[in-house]
Design a protein that fits this description.
- The protein has helices at residues 84-87, 114-127, 140-151, 174-199, 206-220, 226-235, 270-279, 299-313, and strands at 26-27, 40-47, 50-57, 64-68, 91-95, 133-138, 156-162, 255-258, 284-286.
- Strand 8, helix 7 and strand 9 (284-286) form a beta-alpha-beta unit.
- The protein has a 9-stranded mixed β-sheet with strand order 1-2-3-5-4-6-7-8-9, with helices on both faces.
- It is an alpha/beta fold.
- The protein has 8 helices and 9 strands.
């Protein structure tokens, strides 16, 4: 099942320098080892009762790239701490989705639909005065950017759809939804260990199981409002970013779909990624090489893919 996309623990245990914390702190370029290679700022974007923790790195007048994480993850878990995008001359914006990480909960337990998430994304773009951006999202983040691409295509210069898992025909399956509800209840009643108990034995090769559980625990420990994540676990899977895959034929922006192999990431079936790539006109499909770690888990490799899409988009700086 689709728990948040990539399960890498790379660069996820380091904390920012104290000068990088706070609602709107700016780190100078010289603080290379403590913050980011070209400086970092944090701010809060408010919409509809939710307050989103937003992080911006890189030069402010460079082509903007927005990173969107998956369900139960945080903004750390898209390019896994890689700074390749900043080094290659991009303005990088990432944020914790409503109820996740350092963002405040939604105003109501059910307010975790893709419409809510998509309107949050628009609010972030508007607040940062970005007209058009390259969007890269994993799992829930991938579905969110597709929601936007179908409803406000003028805001999307290019997209990287990482490990999509939404299957229109299976979305309302009672067994599938019961599984999500069990995870939500486990987290709500038992915290991180309650979630892990409900999750059970990971459906990956035995040699990977301990690592998967370790990363799940690390990710869940980053949330300031675990009860809100539980609400998201119950409601995001019931939402639909679009009706049918055929709707993706309307997309005109340059697109890449990254699909992981089923042994490493069975919750994001490779065949689903293949179907998305066929449905989006001109989309390039990237799959894993046999015996190699999924590209979706390799921040530097994934950043190269995102940079290629940004280059193909023709996007310029200052928000496009």
């Amino acid at each position: 099942m689709e728990i948040g996309g990539a399960l890498s623990d790379a660069d996820t245990t380091s904390e920012p320098h104290p000068a990088c914390r706070g609602p709107m702190m700016v780190a100078p370029r010289l603080m290379r080892g403590s913050c980011y290679i070209t400086g970092m700022s944090e701010r809060v974007v408010e919409r509809d009762g939710a307050a989103l923790a937003v992080e911006e790195t890189g030069e402010p007048h460079r082509p903007p790239v927005v990173l969107l994480h998956g369900l139960t993850a945080t903004r750390r878990y898209v390019v896994m701490g890689s700074k390749s995008l900043e080094r290659s001359g991009h303005r990088v914006i990432s944020y914790d989705a409503r109820g996740h990480g350092r963002s405040r909960p939604a105003p109501a337990p059910r307010a975790y639909r893709y419409e809510d998430l998509g309107l949050d994304l628009i609010a972030v773009l508007d607040q940062l005065e970005i007209d058009r951006a390259v969007l890269a999202g994993a799992s829930m983040g991938a579905h969110t950017l597709l929601w936007l691409a179908l409803r406000a295509p003028e805001r999307v210069a290019g997209m990287v759809v990482i490990t999509p898992a939404y299957e229109p025909d299976a979305n309302d399956d009672p067994e599938r939804l019961a599984r999500w509800d069990a995870l939500a209840e486990g987290l709500r009643s038992g915290g991180v260990e309650g979630f892990v108990a409900a999750y059970g034995t990971p459906a990956v090769p035995e040699a990977m199981r301990d690592a998967v559980l370790r990363v799940i625990r690390q990710r869940l420990a980053l949330h300031e409002h675990p009860e809100a994540v539980a609400d998201a676990l119950s409601n995001v899977p019931r939402s639909r970013p679009f009706g049918e895959l055929s709707e993706l034929a309307a997309i005109r922006a340059p697109a890449v779909v990254v699909a992981s192999n089923d042994d490493a990431d069975p919750g994001h079936p490779e065949v689903v990624g293949q179907e998305y790539a066929r449905a989006i006109p001109g989309a390039r499909l990237i799959t894993d090489e046999p015996g190699r770690s999924p590209i979706a888990w390799q921040g530097s490799q994934l950043s190269k893919v995102i940079a290629e899409v940004a280059g193909a988009s023709g996007l310029r700086g200052s928000g496009g």
